[in-house]
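Record 1 of the preview.
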Amino acid sequence: MIIGIDASRAFLKRRTGIEEYAYQTIKHLRTCISPTDTVILYVRRKISWEKGRIRFVVPEIDFSLPNNWHVRGVWAPRFWTQIALSLEMLFHTPDVLFVPAHTVPLIHPAHNATFLYSSVALFVRKIFHKASSCTFEHSVAGGPKKTIVTIHGLEYEFCKESYAFLDRLYMRLSIRFSCRVASTVICVSENTKRDVMKLYSVPEKKIQVIYEGYEQQSTENSQQRTKKQTSPYLLFIGRLEERKNIVRMIEAFEILKKKYVIPHILVLAGKPGYGYDQIRYKLQATSHKLDIKELGYISEEEKWALFKNADVFLFPSLYEGFGIPVLEAQSVGVPVVTSDIASLPEVGGAGAIYIDPLNAESLAEGIYRVISDKQQRDDIIAKATENVRRFSWQKCADDIHVLFS
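->
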């Protein structure tokens, strides 16, 4: 069997949620896939200018690959998936294509793409019929096989004001297409499954729910570059964007300072995203701006150092397809206050305090319950420790691998 994996987002140096999913699933699939199968990782080739010459380079992979795994760099000036990866699928079709990041190329191995595949292949053959170098690894007559795609969430459908119109349109069209043509659609939560079925009319029998995992901290005494926080602090880690509900988080912090005179500071770690202008305005306008620390993008080491020393982790997002940071916080014994909507109760289980994300007062009260009631805090931490045992990247990869056969 030849298994192709779209690895175009997996090896970025600064990964966010979907990129982390691609990285971790590829990394852990190494232990599942038989050495008799061939695995091809499709990555973006980039142009580099070195010593007066143009070179094509591929991203570095920070873990070893088995002998039956190969990296294939493909290049396109724009629209990499729909041009470069589509042409790769046309000329060198794998038996299975796994797309971890929700965008299936126009040409792909799934059975329901047979007509498109045959038409394009015939057209290209007519153009290149005299070129002896034009070869196809798999003939159309041999029959296309499987395309498997992961859908992480439909945030743009539920938080429309948090996305630019063109971004929303692109995601809607590309994900609808992916759901329609894929052999199997992986949804990362039952909530995402319900959304995909309801909004895009995807049949239930076509969907498999496979939970994401979380990266367990392996270095206890990692050196940290962040300034050590001397005051107790409330922590948020993630992109500073409208969908993450940062403005209400600041409003809840103001309530806590005024009503309960808490000694904590609020630490916001993450790079700016869509709607950051409103967040920046709120940060400048609040009377407690000296008690709010904005750190920008942080490394993995810095992230775990912040998690371990936080009093509370805040994740009052307006929508999440999954919510890996909830599990990361739970795994190191930090109580979590998060939203009671979308997939978050499904992921956080009994090990979190749930609040109304549209109500700053609700968020403030949820936080105060954790920092003022030691018994409830200890109970939440104990339940969270039990909850995270349900999730791992290895289990995620094992379940994905089953779909290949």
